[in-house]
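Checklist before submission:
- one chain only
- standard amino acids only
- sequence pasted in full

Submission:
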Amino acid sequence: ELKEEFTRILTANNPHAPQNIVRYSFKEQAYKPISYVDQMAIHFTLNGNMIPKDSDEGRRQSIRLITAAGRFYYPGLILLSFLSSEEAPVETSAVTSEEPEIKDEESTGDAQATGEEEAEESGTAEVAEAAEAEEPPSVRLKEQKLANQFNFTERASRTLNNPMRERACQSEPTPCENFSDTANQWNISNAYKEELQKMEKSKEKEKTKAQVARREEEKKGRKFTPLESRSDDTNKILKTTKIMERMVNQNLFDDIAQDFKYFEDASDEYRDQKGTLLPLWKFQCDQTKSLAVTAISWNPRYKDLFAVGYGSYNFMKQGKGMLLLYTLKNFSFPAYVFSSESGIMCLDFHNDHPYLMAVGFYDGNVAIYNLKKATSQPSYKSSAKMGKHTEPVWQVKWQKDDLDNNLNFFSVSSDGRIVSWTLIKNELVHTDVIKLSVEGTTMQGPEELQLQTLGCGISFDFHKKIDYLFLVGTEEGKIYKCSKSYSSQFLDVFEAHHMAVDSVRWNPYHSKVFISCSSDWTVKIWDHTIKTPMFIYDLSSAVGDVAWSPYSSTVFAAVTTDGKAHVFDLSINKYEALCTQLVVAKKRNKLTHIQFNPVYPIVVIGDERGHITSLKLSPNLRRMPK
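Returned file contents:
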């Protein structure tokens, strides 16, 4: 056993050095292991007492040694300086140059060197005494500059200045020509004639092109639809023509403009707080005769501009849709016209970007129109891939931008989904906020699957101050109080109406109050903390729409399918309307929507025949609260 050898290999690596150290790499954005590890292990350290020569303490000690031995040097220096004045200037400089070398030697020299120095000293002293005896005492010795005792060298440097350079270039002169001519009436008339001939030739070319295209289309068996070609001159005067059209209309119907601006119904004093609606302009367009007014929205910046959506509430007669923008300055023709393949059911202007409109269609799509772009097509539109609704979109509402400053709006549809649409990189991205599940309607499907029926959302509105809170009215007559934060459950459910909730609106001044209207002939006012309504009004006909006024928390208006408009003021009369007025004839026409103007004392009302009627509120209907 003692003869058995155990082999050990000694390496330079430290066995205790860690091998798994990582550091964060900012270049690769990740933690990376360090390949190099310090393998040095220190086993013994000892602090020495050697002092560097150039340090402060080293200089002090060298000076101390030099001063201690200084008495051996100075007499020799006096002698040599005395001799240098007469005989040996070269020897003096040699001695002085050798002095620093003597001073820098170590103090621990040999005894022999010191003995030689003492002998030299005695010899030089004798020579000095003899010289002093020979020379007169009045002669002064010239002081010799001592060499630097502190090993100090003075250095100076100077930076080189960059030389100044000049650069210049000369371009070739542009070619010029002198032209002179005399113009008279004949030359001017000839120039005009030539220009007219060119225009006629270009028109003839366009005609021949159109005829050739028509023949080709006839050969192929297709119908040819000629497009009206507008010349450059027409485009230039289009804006001027619009302004002139406004002026002509205001001159022709000056009495309506005067009533809108200045007329106040004096008979309100004798009506016992009742009021009237004065009809003003009627907006209509030939292209929308067969379509119903499905949405009205005022522009938040231009108070005279409002948008109207056209479609059909009859699901058996669905066709195209129209989006028109009217202004109070010109009622004869819309300022903007957009057409769509499907009927438009709702629209909303963006508060911060008044040129952007969110639109919902009957086929379940949503789109964004940009009024700044000269195109009839929407700038952004959803599709089946983007998660569009499977049923008509009944209402859209813009919301505040998200945390990344992306535009977003919400939509509600009959398919039971509340969807948030966000505009990210020129594309609409959808997010399902909540699904309107109806309690007690779980059905047993094939293979024991549980199928849950979804409620049909028709209207919704977001709280003016509490950002996450919103209400949803359904086709079953229920109103759901929901939150953006909870997608699986409702905050509260109101058994509001017996038929579809056509509209639900938060009060703009009172944060707890909202109003709802339904096809069951009733309008109800609620406190969202109480399950039962505070006020119930029976209007004897299906209510199409209801709206709060922008100037008072107690004034609201509603329209019914029998063609009447009702205006209430709760601060004056809590039981009946202050004004009930027939707006359109009952025969085959129904009122669908109503909107207050945010600034002027007027309302606009839409009907099923595509007409928009504007009416002015009498003084009793627009009393400001104290």
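Reviewer check: Residues 185-220 form the longest helix (36 residues).
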